[in-house]
Sequence to fold (172 residues):
Amino acid sequence: MKDRRGVTLVELMVSMAIITIGVLGFFGAFSYITKALHVSRARTLATNLAQEKIESLKNLTYFELLITTASSVDNTLSPPVTYDRVNYPAESILIGGITFTRYTFVALAQIDSDVISTVTYTFPDTGMKQINVNIVWNDAGINKKYALTNLLENPNINPLDAGLSGTVQNSL
Fold:
């Protein structure tokens, strides 16, 4: 009997099919990984832009941080974003080929039953201001949004928790 060396044509075709499936799977995974890195990079940049704005505003004194008195709304987003159009107008920032829009809104805040809420700028000063920063960008035709909120407290204000006790007498 002759010594057989090599592979048959059928074996060669099966092995090429297996290698092709493996290579195509690798390229599919590579495409998915590339998209995931892009999304993660955009989210990280948005987070950094929001944090940068929050930190720069918190470096102001309580009275230097201006409250929003003239606001605008970007209705192209869902839900719409309200921002300050005078003191902290919308900023367009291009980083790494992505255009981000940064919206800032500052309002008086109050705490009621451990819940923080905002009040209008005509409300008496509560000694606390809430800073809202929204970062918006477009990713593959879809608007993405990242929001960050922080508080700045007036260190010189006395707490508004007091009690009154006594007896009421009629002087008639």
User: Anything to note?
Assistant: The beta strands are 71-74, 81-84, 91-95, 98-112, 115-119, 128-139, 142-153. Residues 81 and 156 are 32 Å apart (CA to CA). The first strand starts at residue 71 and ends at 74.
